[in-house]
Specification:
This protein is α/β, with parallel strands linked by helices and about 425 residues long. About 55% of the residues lie in helices and about 10% in strands. It folds into three domains: about 5-80, SRP54, nucleotide-binding domain (Four Helix Bundle (Hemerythrin (Met), subunit A), Up-down Bundle); about 95-280, P-loop containing nucleotide triphosphate hydrolases (Rossmann fold), CATH 3.40.50.300; about 285-425, Orthogonal Bundle (434 Repressor (Amino-terminal Domain)), CATH 1.10.260. α3 runs antiparallel to α4 (about 65-80), α9 (about 215-230) crosses α10 and α13 packs antiparallel against α15. It binds guanosine-5'-diphosphate (GDP) and magnesium ion (MG).
């Protein structure tokens, strides 16, 4: 997805100077790419105006080149356009999938089941699509393949009864209902879904939408939202449609968040939605990581740019030596730049330390030494290996970075050795 944008950004990056002409070309290219992805024209035009104005009018922040500055603006705008990173809670729950014919509901039921199974939960699926006889066999097969429990009635006519029976029959922590589709959201489908709702009481109601409907995703999400209520959207077939970007942007504008995306027909082709990953792809991961880091550091201390040896391993040692949150807090108050301290830095609870340790145990040496190599797929691997989520991994890295910035500000050596006393003395205790 957004391959064209990636090319346009690369073209811009490879230019000698980021002058007005280069910016104009970049804006034009991005405009064309977004419209091809079926992003709403009004939004595209707003975005272009914003990029143009900010890229050319703003003073460039010290320490960044004009080119980096422009890329930062483009990065922020695209991320904003694509909405928020999904938050998916890993725990027992009832999940209802709904959507029109062929959207990918049954396949996605299997993918979600596999997602929770891999995270250690006992999972079952219920075949509540009584509309199409083949749906029963399709889901049964999938359930067998991935090794989760299955409930269905091959000759059933009433989906609500099937759900009721399934709930009695299955003894599972995560239960997923695969419902029937229609050609459109008609009265019959809304009624069927609200009846299932009543008996199943889902914690999550996900609308499954195929990427190829592009910006009509907004209308569809809004109509399902008002008919049955939704807690999220899953956009499937991101791998096989050029309009996925349009669908994602449309969902963002419907204010119903995208939770997962489907990227293929196999069970593992499911990702928690993370716009940062897309945008990173577009701008080029290494460039972006280093750019973001540079910006983050600049925001707190330009001199910190020159330093860079406080590794994740040091971080690990350091949080282990300071599990006393009270101590940390007290120390923070003594810092001359206390007002600028990231708020979550004093959040180091015992619980967090042990969860961070588990995550870091799933990282290899390279990652511990240089966390900037941790891209989307590594993050996914680390999360899986440690039984956590990618957002927890991200949280750890963020925490690490903030600490790194702080460490760079005072005596690095004493902190590195975990010698808190020495440091406290320096701070006037
Ligand atoms: N390429 C691709 N195909 C998908 C994806 N999700 C589902 N499909 C295919 O789309 C078709 C319809 O899927 P199905 O789950 O039966 O849709 P349902 O009618 O909503 O239950 C099947 O051929 C699936 O293999 C996806 O993420 N990528
Ligand atoms: Mg189906």
């Amino acid at each position: 997805m957004f391959d064209r944008i990636k090319e346009s950004v690369q073209k811009f990056s490879s230019k000698g100077v980021a002058d007005e002409e280069a910016v104009e070309q970049l804006v034009k290219d991005i405009q064309r790419d977004l419209i091809q992805a079926d992003v709403d024209v009004t939004l595209v035009s707003e975005l272009s105006t914003e990029i143009r104005e900010e890229a050319l009018a703003d003073e460039v922040p010290g320490g960044l080149s004009r080119k980096e500055h422009v890329l930062e603006i483009v990065y922020n705008k695209l991320e904003n356009l694509l909405g928020e990173e999904a938050e998916v809670e890993i725990g027992p729950k009832n999940i209802l999938l709904c959507g029109l014919y062929g959207a990918g509901k049954t396949t996605t039921t299997g993918k979600i089941a596999d997602f929770y199974r891999k995270r250690g939960l006992k999972v079952g699926v219920i075949a509540a699509d009584t509309d199409r006889p083949a749906a029963y066999d399709q889901l049964k097969q999938i359930a067998e393949d991935i090794g989760v429990e299955f409930y269905g009635e091959s000759d059933a006519e009433d989906p609500v009864k099937v759900v009721e029976n399934g709930m009695k029959e299955l003894d599972t922590e995560v239960t997923i209902v695969d419902s029937a589709g229609r050609n459109s959201l008609n009265e019959e489908l809304s009624q069927e879904l609200s009846q299932i709702n009543n008996v199943f009481q889902p914690d999550e109601k996900y609308l499954v939408i195929p990427a190829d409907i592009g910006q009509s995703a907004r209308e569809q999400a809004e109509s399902f939202e008002s008919a049955v209520g939704l807690t999220g959207v899953i956009v499937t077939k991101m791998d096989s449609s050029a309009k996925g970007g349009g669908a994602l942007v449309a969902c963002r504008n419907s204010n119903i968040s995208v939770k997962f995306i489907g990227t293929g027909e196999r069970m593992q082709d499911l990702e928690m939605y993370d716009p940062v990953d897309f945008v990173s792809e577009m701008i080029g991961q290494p460039d972006l990581e280093s750019l973001l880091e540079k910006i983050e550091e600049l925001e707190t201390d330009p001199e910190a740019l020159l330093e860079g040896e406080f590794t994740l391993e040091d971080f690990k040692q350091q949080i282990e030596s300071v599990t006393d949150a009270g101590l940390m807090e007290e120390m923070m108050q003594q810092l001359p730049f206390g007002a600028q301290m990231p708020s979550n830095i004093t959040d180091i609870t015992e619980e967090k330390v042990s969860s961070y340790n588990v995550i870091m145990d799933s990282m290899n040496r390279e990652e511990l030494t240089d966390p900037t190599v941790i891209d989307g797929s590594r993050r996914e691997r680390i999360a899986e290996g440690s039984g956590t989520s990618t957002s927890e991994v991200r949280d750890l890295i963020k925490h690490y970075r903030q600490t790194k910035n702080m460490v760079d500000k005072f005596d690095k050596k004493s902190m590195k050795r975990g010698n808190m006393q020495d440091m406290m003395q320096k701070l006037g205790f």
